[in-house]
Hints:
Blueprint: H1 2-27, H2 33-53, H3 59-73, H4 89-102, H5 108-114, H6 119-126
Organism: Glycomyces albidus
Membrane topology: Multi-pass membrane protein
Main location: membrane
Amino acid sequence: MTEWLIGLGVLLGALLLSWGLLFVLAKRLPPGILRDLAAFIPDCVTTARRLRKDPRVPRRAKIAVVLAGVWVASPIDLIPEFIPVIGPLDDIVVVALCLRYAGPQVPREVLLAAWPGEPRLIERLLGRPQPAEPAN
C-alpha cells in the first residue's frame, strides 16, 4: 500500500510540475497567435465564471457559458489532449461556438468587462456589434 501511495504522489508531483512548466513557458511566448492560443482557454474559463455570476446575462446565455465550462473541464474529448498542437482544438472550437451563441444575448460592455485577455480576441470572435434597432 505504501508503494502505491508513493507512486501516486510522484505522479501527482510530476503532473503539477509539468503544468507549472507549461505555465512558465506560455508566459514567455512572444506576442502573436501562439501566445493568444495559449491564453484563450484560461481566458474563456475566467469569462465563463464571471458571466455565470452576472445578473445582466440572460439564462440562455448562462446555459451556453456553463456548457462551455463543463466541456473544457471534462476529461472526455473528441481529440485527446496529448496530441500536440491539435489536442486542445475541440475545447477551443466548443468554447468559441458557445461564446458566439451567447454574445448577441449579452450586452457588449458586460462581455468585454468579463474578458480578462486581449480585447481584440473577443471582438474578433464575436464579430461587429449589431446596430441597435430603432424604437417605435
